[in-house]
Specification:
Helix content: 10-25%
Shape: elongated
Strand order of the largest sheet: 1-2-3
Order of helices and strands: EEEH
Strand content: 35-45%
Structural class: mainly beta
Number of strands: 3
Number of helices: 1
């Protein structure tokens, strides 16, 4: 019976925490002969869900992400409220 085999070949992590994984999909016919191969790269941003990857890839990526400093979100500053100091009505 024909089927598709998935092979995870390499994982790359850049200093900012972005991850890329090179994946090959191998198409095998009824005679167990490889008839085609498709290669792609999957990209993951820091703290993305990576549960579809093999366990050893997940543990390496999670260990790397755990060692990165926390991402600091910019804080919106409120504009100061100006008081006129002149409360008299005319």
């Amino acid at each position: 019976m024909s089927h598709i085999t998935t092979q995870y070949e390499t994982v790359s992590i850049d200093p900012s925490g972005s991850v890329s994984v090179r994946v090959s999909k191998i198409f095998v016919d009824d005679n167990e002969v490889e008839v085609a191969t498709a290669r792609e790269k999957q990209y993951f941003q820091r703290d993305a869900t990576i549960t579809g990857l093999p366990d050893h890839y997940q543990s390496a990526i999670n260990a790397f992400w755990a060692g990165l400093p926390a991402i600091e979100e910019p804080v919106e500053e409120e504009a100061p409220v100006e008081e006129s100091g002149d409360d008299t009505e005319e």
